[in-house]
Amino acid sequence: MYKMSVVGKNVRKLDSVEKVTGTANFTTDVELPGMLFGRTLRSPYPHARIVNIDTTAAEKLEGVKAVISYKNTSRVLFNTAATSTFTLPPMMPVLDQYIFDSVVRYVGDEVAAVAAVTEEIAERALSLIKVEYEILPAVFDPLEALKDEAPALHGECEAGKNIPAEKIHLEMGDVEKGFAEADFVFEHTFKVPVQKQTQMETQAAVAQVTKDGKITVYSTTQTPHPSRRILASIFEIPYSKVRVLNPPYVGGGFGVRIGLSAKAEPIAVALALQAKKPVKVVYTRTEDFIASDTRHPGYITVKTGVKKDGTLVSRKMHAILNSGAYCTWSGETPGVLGAMGLSMYRCENQMYDGHSVYTNTTPTGAMRGFGNPQAMFAIDSQMDIIAEELGIDALELRIKNMMRPGDKWVLPYQCQSTGLEECIKNGAEEIGWNQKGSFDNSGRFKRGIGVAVGTHVSNAWPFCGDYSNAYLTMQQDGSVNLAAGVPDLGTGTATTLAQMAAEVLGISFEKVSVTFGDTESTPFDIGSHASRTCYASGAAVVAAANEMKAQIFEYASKLLETYSDKIDIEEDHVYSTERPEQRISLFQVAERAHLAGIQFIGVGKVIPQNAPPYMAHFADVEVDTHTGQISVIKMVGVHDVGRAIHPQICEGQIEGGIVQGIGYALSEEVIYDKNGKQVNNNFHKYMIPTSMDVPEIKAILVESNDPSHPFGVKGVGETGLVPTAAAIANAVYNATGVRMHEIPITAERMFKAIVKNKNN
Amino acid sequence: MNQLLRMVVNSENVEIYVSPDDTLVDVLRDKLNLKGTKKGCGEGECGACTVIMNGKAVDSCMIPAIKAMDANIQTIEGISDGDKLHPLQQSFIDNGAVQCGFCTPGMIMASKALLDENSSPTPYDIKEAIAGNICRCTGYIKIEKAVQEAAEMMKHECCCHNHSKSEE
Ligand code: FES
Ligand code: FES
Question: Which CATH number, 3.40.1190.10, 3.10.20.30, 3.20.20.140, 3.40.50.620, labels domain B3-78?
């Protein structure tokens, strides 16, 4: 292994100066000469057929340059989610969206769009579009939507009524035999809500079409390359004629734009094609709420058989998720839910069945954790119940059953490392686990401590295809340009990639410059999702750096009069390992090579394996039993990150994830009224944690150094959210003796449960 | 219809015609091209558009532009001293308080309004000052720490400054 000089250090993030001075460029900041503004007309009904649409008055309004609807736009079916571009057989991509259709399937579905010289005129033009709807019956709950009498949203579906994609079935051993051998069997059903990503920059795109038909789209996407492919297929032009780029910054994502930014890009392109001018489309906050993917809500049942000593012998899981009106990620999410849920603990006999169901609500898709926070709320709430019933300490039960290297699981890759036991022990110490049960809970306020654990992935394989490419070019002064197709959503991707390149090459961090998030100047990369950039793109960068290094060694061996395997680079100098005083600066090597007609170019192409990150979360909470109000006093998150390339970035990911998890546990829930309209479609009504809601949070890193990555890295982008809700629900139980099977545990839900518990 | 708005933005006099429905954030971003101030909701709920107006942090999306007549406005573009970053900017970088960066300008302006008035804020004062600013990335932990450290940095800078003065 290398002697680390850049990796593991909190170097200054490459994007930070621009971001603190207000000079960082985001899609919403882009302005092009002659640019028009696009606005979208959305359905007020959850399910309706457009009988007639009359746009003549809108077209006549002065300043209007284009009006589009299903009548004059592409009829190519697509899926806004990037998965449609890398679904692995035998699963098939589900293509169920048009830019506009003659049937609308949720409140907020796209009906028409206008481009005009100002946003105000575009908005006024929308009000001049006359639409005649034939209202169709609608259904909002996934269990209802499975019934025979429910309306079919997309006609006949192969997998069953309103089931958009394959049903997921995972199996290992023999669950029935396992249950028969168990001393106790537990079965519980849990309900999880619609959470919204609420990244701070709403969905946005600016499209420009040149006279010769080349399309450039500035976009908030998390995946420029897959998004390019989706756009090229919608508009039926060669992929090479579409350029998708971040400008270069993106105001967060959390999964909401893995693929297109809802329909911002295709609407902007369709308007630009018709108006022959650049068009900017920026979703309002309410549009972002109602018309871009949310997290999957649903029902999860877990049945577990255990021995008296706490050994798990059989586990069966079942999940029904609400897909909303379109598929987007509804094929993969139930898969990840089941696979992660089952793989947390060692258990010989396991089975999972799960799928999504179309309903007339906003499409549900990827959100940080991707099915896993749902799974772990159920799994680790139940582990707590089991520990209590068997009279085993909650930590001990988890340590006893945790997955270890060599254990069998349902995943097609190996668990090669785990730092979970250390995570649990460190976290217990930090939260003061031994105080558990010792609080004076005789009064109105009751305090409790809870734990939950979790795991996740470090990229998307085997749930969908996954690979990364990167290349490095050395300039004549020994500095390096790095090009990778991933975006940097604020997760520090560019910084950590540059750190890894600098480390391998033995050059200073300051000499690496990174190009990212642009299909024209970078090779294909899936993009930023599945906690994968540091792991997968990082591995590609390391491969590229190694290739470049070999070229440098080869060339420098002549200059140093030694063999190429007797050379190394350190502090921007190439030296002979046998005679270290034989040193020559990289500047000189690169310049000499240049004069000889040689540039050092390293290309890295990687199909990553996968690695499970592990984490233990602890919550210390206080419940006001008179109001049901829950205050979190402290959260501890101890994470096995494999290796921390930049510890501060890792902590930031964990802290941010924990706070989103607190929201998921206690306050965040998109609610639909009986007409399918979101009741709380803005920041005023949808309750995101603010600074006032955030307790003391301690993020602690554990490094297990996974063998599947050149630096030992595992994913950390999503992990902070995974076990948070379960840890809080377990702490609430410890405080009050009331078990919550549904989140968010709002004050109202808590209060009702306390009352019900008393009456029983 | 359109009215002439006079104001001082980042120490420069500005005169510009605005319409009655123009908000301050739109004038700053679209007419003055000060795109550092962000818009996350346009409804006074997220704080991304926070600027300092006559010494107070305000949501510029909730201010009709014409209400800024004769006002003194500070935006994120106007707080560093040439190439020298404002202590808050430096401290946000050092503490890793910046992720996507979309909330950052508003956060820094809300914090600056606090530190301009209160040089020794308690952790609670800091939480309160940024309570109207949503950050979906960081979980606020590193932001609060950054503000605390900036306050200390500024106190130190300013007492050194006084020192050298008294020595003169
Ligand atoms: S944009 Fe002004 S408060 Fe959100
Ligand atoms: S850094 Fe992204 S919202 Fe604060």
Answer: 3.10.20.30
